[in-house]
Amino acid sequence: MKLGKKVVGLIATGFLLAACGGTKEAAEKVDSGNLAAEQKISISSPAPISTLDTTQTTDKNTFTMAQHLFEGLYRFDDDSATVPALAKDVKISDDGRKYHFTLREGIKWRNGEPITGQDFVYSWKKLVTPATIGPNAYLLDSVKNSFEIRNGEKSVDELGISAPNDKEFIVELKQAQPSFLAVVSIAWLAPQNQKFVEAQGKDYALDSEHLLYSGPFMLANWDATSDTWTLKKNPEYYDADQVKLEEVAVSTIKEDNTGINLYQANELDLVRINGQYVQQYQEDPGYVSHPDVANYFLDFNKKEGTPLANVHLRKAIGQAIDKEALTQSVLNDGSKPLNGLIPSKLYANPETDEDFRAYSGEYLKNDIKKAQAEWTKAQADVGKKVKLSLLAADTDQGKRIAEYVQSQLQENLPGLEITISSQPSNNVNQSRREKNYELSLSGWIAGSSELDSYFNLYAGESSYNYGNYHNAKYDQLVEDARTINANNPEKQFAEYKEAEDILLNQDAAQVPLYQSASNYLINPKLKGISYHLYGDYFHLRNAYLTE
């Protein structure tokens, strides 16, 4: 992709990236004469927030909020390019292995204390230390000694990061990583203040009062049980003048029609819509649609001794689902069928500009004859009749997809019975983490342009490997592509393609279903919303309300 090309070029020249007169976002003209006197809006959220400890956050809804509350060294602009945030610039060594960040003057936590290089040292060490390790620790595997630390082979004091003083933060990589600035733009790598975190103890990040904010907004009226909360402008944010919205009231609304009714009654300024409502409201002046760099998939718990440990059963299920009908008839919201682990437009070979999805091809395409042949093979081992539970979110869309998958499998694989276990989104994530499921519907949105963030889902030692997948050849290919061949696009692509073939064609470890689209009804008077390729649903840093 273009981002990859830009970063590679910068690395080759040892270029200095700096905030020289503002970003494209900041340069956008805001008609101050047309600004609403009261900059307050109300929006909906499809699910509550889980933990806001940035080292532990995983689900997309929480991540969207986290991106508003916590800012790191860099951030994404409107075009999803990386721009300086808490760092004012970075010097990258000629070999691409050393990043020397200089922090802005005057950056502060919400309590008025300065944000320092040591705050990054603390949060990054916390992320990879075995006792406090977060699920996204793999993001720092390219940092010197990080992988060895999280595996208990080295001390955290050997992590390749340092803060010579309050205004400098230095990172040493094991090998060049062209997308590293995109990685540090993710809220998971935002700083944390050690003194504050330790003072809160077990209460840290469990409610809005036990958090310290570095981003454009701060949180109010939230705890772990809240279905409503409020974002408020952070007066200590270094670029507070750019932030126009004073208050954002957020409500958890699971049913699309409820959110739409509130939008039409002018009680909501932004609501996400799906399925039939997309077609119904496409002509509405507030309708907005954006393709996601994300996949949605059916996952298997392949625990030994269970029916789903049988590869033929997994292949049968994988080929029994009509993805075209799913996207066109059930979803009907701009989503596209996906027959691979990696979504389209995530990453392209920086030398050839070929998208990885096109390069790698398609796997587990719908084929009823092949599915039934695999089912016959499976039955010889698992029996003529098999009953499986399907874990899914209790949202409107989650229920529709689950019912469709259920009907497809029961119709096309006679003898297979599917029961649906509908749970709140956060409960689904918890059940998956605890490996308390058989089949589950899940998704993964890109946090950056890293291919490895998807392949890591099935790495043997990954904290996201909920489905008990183990293949030594797969692990080795992914490790080599991520490390020794990270800057050799041809070899890297070949290794990732072979890994994807093992995962989906040989082992059928998951069933890719579709690449999603995000659709909204948004008050036409609400301007300046950003829709990033990576991470969050939307971002309100530059948003404002007009008269």
Give a structural overview.
The chain has 547 residues and is α+β, with helices and mostly antiparallel strands. It folds into 2 domains: 2-246 and 518-545, Dipeptide-binding Protein, Domain 1 (Dipeptide-binding Protein, domain 1), CATH 3.90.76.10; 294-515, Roll (Dipeptide-binding Protein, domain 3). 30% of the residues lie in helices and 20% in strands. The protein has helices spanning 2-13, 24-27, 60-69, 117-128, 146-150, 180-183, 194-200, 256-264, 276-280, 311-319, 323-331, 356-360, 368-382, 396-412, 425-433, 452-455, 472-482, 489-506; strands at 16-18, 40-45, 74-76, 82-84, 87-92, 98-103, 161-162, 168-172, 217-220, 228-233, 247-252, 270-273, 287-291, 294-300, 336-337, 386-393, 416-423, 439-445, 510-515, 517-522, 526-527, 544-545. The protein has a 6-stranded mixed beta sheet with strand order 15-19-14-18-16-17. It is globular and about 70 Å long. It starts with a helix and ends with a strand.
